[in-house]
Amino acid sequence: MYTVKSVGVMSFAKMMGAIYGALGLLFVPVLLIAGVAGMMTGERAGAFGGAAVIVMAVMFPILYGVMGFIAGAIGALLYNLFAKWTGGIELQLQAPPVAFQAPAFQPQA
User: What pairs with residue 90 in β-bridges?
Assistant: First the structure.
């Protein structure tokens, strides 16, 4: 058994920021469709609202990534704190099987 005693705060925060930013991209098509539909209403308020939704579609993955970065940093700090008290998470790891390697060729002199 191996025990995870601590987590790199910045590395975990970067990974969470990237993951949340990628998840934020899932909402972009829905927001773009809603924005275009709002702009097609023909009313001034609809056009303004549609433009605002399109701007949100661009900003959403960025904001979601920033929130993921902050949440990841806080989560890693809390994990490190609680791991000191509780001992951390135990992992059982298994090495991958080693492929057969033929002996190296050695020329005869």
Answer: 3
Closest CA to 15 of 73, 63, 60: 73
User: 79 near 9, Cβ under 8 Å?
Assistant: no
Torsion of CA 43, 47, 53, 58, to 10 degrees: 170
The pLDDT of residue 31 is 80
Residues in contact with 44: Cβ distance below 8 Å, sequence separation at least 6, in sequence order: none
Dump pLDDT digits (tens) for 14-26. Answer: 999 999 999 989 8
Q: Under a CB-based contact definition with an 8 Å cutoff, are residues 39 and 52 in contact?
A: no
Q: What is the span of the domain harbouring residue 65?
A: 25-87
Number of domains in the chain: 1
pLDDT digits (tens, 9 = 90+) for 77-96: 999 999 999 988 888 888 88
Tell me the C-alpha distance between 50 and 38, whole Å.
4
On whether the CB atoms of residues 6 and 83 are closer than 8 A, the answer is yes
